[in-house]
Every structure is written in structure tokens, then in C-alpha cells.
Design goal:
This protein has 389 residues and is an all-alpha fold. The chain is built from 17 helices and no strands. The chain starts with a helix and ends with a helix.
């Protein structure tokens, strides 16, 4: 019988004999990885210290072509010659769909640039990113402050609310940051300029889309407005996709999860997207806004379906739907009818039948036995008289 040491040595010999196979497998795996790395970008080679390495949208041909078409369309004006044709074949509709996709890309690019600015400016003013959350406001403030350590010399009026300006000034007096080098400051200011340029391009794109909403989706624009209609179309991916979407999903387009900072969600508003920016929603009392949002989403879906088939280019159907929404909301706000005092019934002179029950049955039993006993007694007396006589 082999000992434990002998069996252990035998296992080691088997392992030494099989050492060549894992090496071959690793070599094949390494070859496969090498082949895959040729197609994948090398993340370590990216220079995140350079803005051009992380922000590339403005240099793409798609961005330049769409912006050039938008500028030409804004200068030329709206052409209604193809109003009766199929909507998907209209080149202006295709440009609007491209603009909606480009606006999403611009928002993502602004977020990337915002992260770049925060990483650079964190050495100078680390507390600023927690005080100013909006990327464009943050870029404007950083460009305005620059390398200045004394914020009393910097005028931030018009860039931020007065309360936030006071908090920023007080925080800057106690910050632990240090002035940036000339190279980092130049890169940071360049990134701020690029973010502001992208924001201006986004506004131009949205202005173009809003100006064409009266032609592309007249009925939807009549209900929610041109600005909200363009946002709904951009998020849904076009008018056709919006028309196929159920109303419960239209209600949530553009909704964002709110950060309540640990407070209770009991008093927070329900999740609602772009529809909260409509005039009808804002004029509705807060207690009825949940129902109003569902109603607006349902009517907006109907209007989008009418626009997708060019059912009513004049927008009259949308205006009728908007009037129905307003009438229903007004009906909801009406007070309930007053409760009138209920008059007493007219007295009835006829005697009513008395209600029977256990007591009445017992009483009838006693009366019946008494009457039967008297009759039986009288019968016995008369029979006795007859027999005796």
C-alpha cells in the first residue's frame, strides 16, 4: 500500500507532465487578445489632459453639416409647398429628426466638457462644483473668476442668483485651493468657451425645430406648445415613434429622478416629464395635476397620431382637443352640488298592518286555547243536560 508521501509525489509528477498544455492555451488566448486589440482603441493611449482627446463632436462632419443646414433653413424660412406630401419624405422633416438626435449628442458632449472643467478647476476652487450644479452656469462662473482669489473683485451678477453668489463668495474666502498654472488655466478657459459654443448651437437647433413644429406637428403643438412638442419628438425618436407610443409612456418622456437629499418623498411631486412645462399643466391646481397630466398625455398621443398621417394640417383638431382638456379641468374644479334637506313623507291616514312576531304568536295561542276550552266546557254542559233529562 502506497504511503501518503508517495501519492503526493505521484501527483506532482502528473502536474509536471501537463505543464506544456496550459502554456499552449495561454499562447492561443494571447494571440486572440492581440488580434482583438487591433480593432479596439487603446484606453491608456488617450490623453485626458487634452480637451481634443475627449471632446470630438464639433470636429465631426455630421455636426458641421447639420448646423450648416439649420442656418440655411433659418435664413430661407419655411417652405409649405410640400405640405400635402408624405411627412417622412419631406427633407425638412428629416432635418428635424437629425436635429433632435444632434441635440442629445450636444447635451452628452457638454457633460463630458463639464467633467473636464471640474477636474482642472478643482485645484483652484474645489467647493464650487457643489455650489453650482448646472454645467453651463459652472462654465460661465469659472470663465468669469479665472485665477482670481478675491471674489469681491469679481462681478457675478446675472450669472447666478444673489443667494448663491453670497454663498460662493463666503466659501471662496475660506477655500483651500491654489491658483492654477498658466497652461491649466488656458485649457480650462478653452473648455468653458467650447461648452458655451455648444450651448449656443443647441439653442439654435431647438429654435429651428420649434419654428417648424407648426408645420410638422400642428395639432400636437396646439396642445403642448412648439417647445414641448419638439422635445417630445426628439426624445421619442420622431413623430412616427411618438404616435406609436402609449399615453402612459408619453407622460414620462423627459422625467428625471429627483434628488431629495434624504428628505421624505411624501410631499414630492410625482414623476412627470416635459408635459409639466405646458401652459395647461402650470395653470392647473396642484391637487389636480396628476389627473391633468394623464389627460394631457392621452390627448397629445391622439394629436400625434393625427399629425403622423397628416389628418388635419390646419391644427383645428388639436385646438378642439385642447378645449376638451380645459373644460374637463374646469369641471373637476366645480364644487359638489349642495345637499338639500329631505322633506318628511306625507302622513298616511289608513291604519297600517301590525308587525307579527313571537309575542304575537304566543298571545294568539293563549286566546285560541281559552276560546277552545270555553267551547268544550259549554258543549259538555249541554250534553249532560240532554242525557239527564
Amino acid at each position: 500500500m502506497a504511503s501518503l508521501a508517495d501519492s503526493f509525489l505521484a501527483d506532482l509528477d502528473e502536474l509536471s507532465d501537463n505543464e506544456g498544455y496550459p502554456e499552449e492555451d495561454n499562447a492561443e488566448a494571447a494571440g486572440m487578445e492581440d488580434d482583438g486589440d487591433d480593432d479596439m482603441p487603446d484606453l491608456e493611449s488617450l490623453n485626458y489632459d487634452d480637451l481634443d482627446s475627449v471632446s470630438k463632436l464639433q470636429k465631426t462632419q455630421r455636426y458641421n453639416d447639420i448646423m450648416q443646414k439649420v442656418e440655411d433653413a433659418l435664413q430661407k424660412g419655411t417652405d409649405f409647398s410640400n405640405q400635402g406630401s408624405i411627412l417622412e419624405e419631406d427633407p425638412e422633416y428629416q432635418l428635424i429628426v437629425d436635429c433632435n438626435a444632434l441635440s442629445v449628442d450636444i447635451e452628452n458632449e457638454i457633460i463630458i466638457i463639464h467633467n473636464f472643467i471640474r477636474d482642472k478647476y478643482r485645484l483652484k476652487f474645489p467647493e464650487l462644483e457643489s455650489l453650482v450644479h448646472h454645467p453651463i452656469d459652472y462654465a460661465r462662473v469659472v470663465k468669469k473668476i479665472g485665477n482670481e482669489m478675491d471674489l469681491t473683485l469679481v462681478d457675478l451678477e446675472g450669472l447666478l442668483p444673489s443667494a448663491i453668489i453670497m454663498v460662493v463668495s463666503v466659501t471662496a474666502s475660506t477655500t483651500s485651493g491654489k491658483p492654477l498654472s498658466e497652461e491649466n488655466l488656458e485649457k480650462t478657459i478653452d473648455a468653458c468657451d467650447r461648452a458655451l459654443t455648444l450651448d449656443a448651437a443647441k439653442k439654435k437647433v431647438l429654435d429651428f425645430v420649434e419654428s417648424r413644429m407648426g408645420y410638422i406637428a400642428p395639432n400636437l403643438s396646439a396642445i403642448v406648445g412648439s417647445a414641448v412638442a419638439s422635445k417630445l419628438m426628439g426624445t421619442a425618436g420622431g413623430l412616427g415613434a411618438l404616435a406609436k407610443m402609449p399615453a402612459c409612456n408619453v407622460q414620462l418622456l423627459g422625467a428625471k429622478r429627483k434628488n431629495l437629499a434624504g428628505f421624505s418623498t411624501a410631499t414630492s411631486q410625482f414623476r412627470v416629464g416635459y408635459l409639466e412645462q405646458t401652459e395647461v399643466f402650470q395653470s392647473t391646481p396642484p391637487a389636480l395635476r396628476t389627473r391633468a397630466c394623464r389627460l394631457i398625455a392621452a390627448k397629445s398621443t391622439l394629436a400625434a397620431r393625427i399629425d403622423s398621417i397628416r389628418g388635419d394640417p390646419t391644427g383645428k383638431a388639436g385646438r378642439n382637443l385642447l378645449e376638451e382638456i380645459r373644460k374637463k379641468i374646469e369641471k373637476w374644479q366645480e364644487p359638489p352640488p349642495a345637499k338639500l334637506p329631505k322633506p318628511l313623507p306625507v302622513p298616511d291616514s289608513e291604519p297600517k298592518k301590525k308587525r307579527g312576531g313571537r309575542r304575537l304568536r304566543k298571545m294568539k295561542e293563549r286566546l285560541w286555547h281559552a276560546r277552545t276550552g270555553r267551547k268544550w266546557q259549554a258543549a259538555c254542559v249541554s250534553w249532560t243536560k240532554q242525557t239527564c233529562c
